[in-house]
């Protein structure tokens, strides 16, 4: 399937082209497999979109490095690790994690499991293609396809793993074992990280667990095909994550960047490491003490790039629990910045606006 559109035509109908792409159910990979040499117009970003230039950009890039936190010998180094997590969460919102306890074999097999799904015959993937929000396992491209300014060069396998346990039989067989094992390892690592983050907030180690921050988990397997014109589009538009915490496994291709001090900083692939970032909901309940930094992924011409994101959020779980700034963090000098919200309301708003380059958190700020 090829989606085409004459960029100079006054009769160009964007909605029709989006619908044609969606109804093909073949994703970006299907476009690439058709042999295109130019990307369809629906993927082309405005020439001035998201570009930051100048001397400050060069200076920050030269000096700044993404924090790397080592979890080795945690019994002896716990206080040091808490301080490192605190500094990274407050100042950057992103860090790389090494000696995290997950064997490289598991990481490699997880990436191959995601590759295996996305490279299945289209007739097989068709069974999982949907835009229904209630589906626990689904495949698609651009959740915000019809609301975004331009489509991203990426397909995704989305799997809701907990709090209601996913039946392994619901997963495609080619990636079933890999995703199930990875999910179990992520739950253990997430539990440890939430303890460190709780202590970094000056709370008892179980505080974020008591708020159910680690209760829900979704695993997203992203596939970024090689793009013939990567400078014209994005792998993923600038955004922050609508969860408490994200743990990301990325392959060696790179392209992930964070927006720090008004410029884009590369998050270089580090063999055996996992990338961790603070989500919007953790920024909200920490009353801006922790930062949910905006990030993006560049398109590339050497792919496919593979990544696996683990979102800690009870995405589909029918809970009415409300989240607002943690009372123990508030004072007369540090009043609440955000109103209370349910996970459902937050995610519904986030999804409705799509990846439009603005933070969903602004919508939940209290009027001052």
Walk me through what this model shows.
With 368 residues, the chain is α+β, with helices and mostly antiparallel strands. The chain is 31% helix and 18% strand. The protein contains ten helices and 14 strands. The protein has helices at residues 14-24, 27-33, 55-63, 74-91, 104-118, 122-125, 173-200, 207-210, 280-285, 343-353; strands spanning 68-70, 94-98, 137-140, 155-162, 217-224, 236-239, 245-250, 256-260, 263-266, 274-278, 295-297, 305-312, 322-323, 341-342. The chain has an eight-stranded mixed β-sheet. The protein has a four-stranded antiparallel β-sheet with strand order 6-11-8-9. The longest helix has 28 residues, at 173-200. It is globular, with a radius of gyration of 20 Å. Residues 1-8 have low confidence and may be disordered.
Which helices and strands, and how do they pair?
Elements: H1 14-24, H2 27-33, H3 55-63, E1 68-70, H4 74-91, E2 94-98, H5 104-118, H6 122-125, E3 137-140, E4 155-162, H7 173-200, H8 207-210, E5 217-224, E6 236-239, E7 245-250, E8 256-260, E9 263-266, E10 274-278, H9 280-285, E11 295-297, E12 305-312, E13 322-323, E14 341-342, H10 343-353
Parallel strand pairs: 1-2
Antiparallel strand pairs: 2-10, 3-4, 4-5, 5-12, 6-11, 7-10, 7-12, 8-9, 8-11, 13-14
Helix pairs in contact: 4-7, 5-7
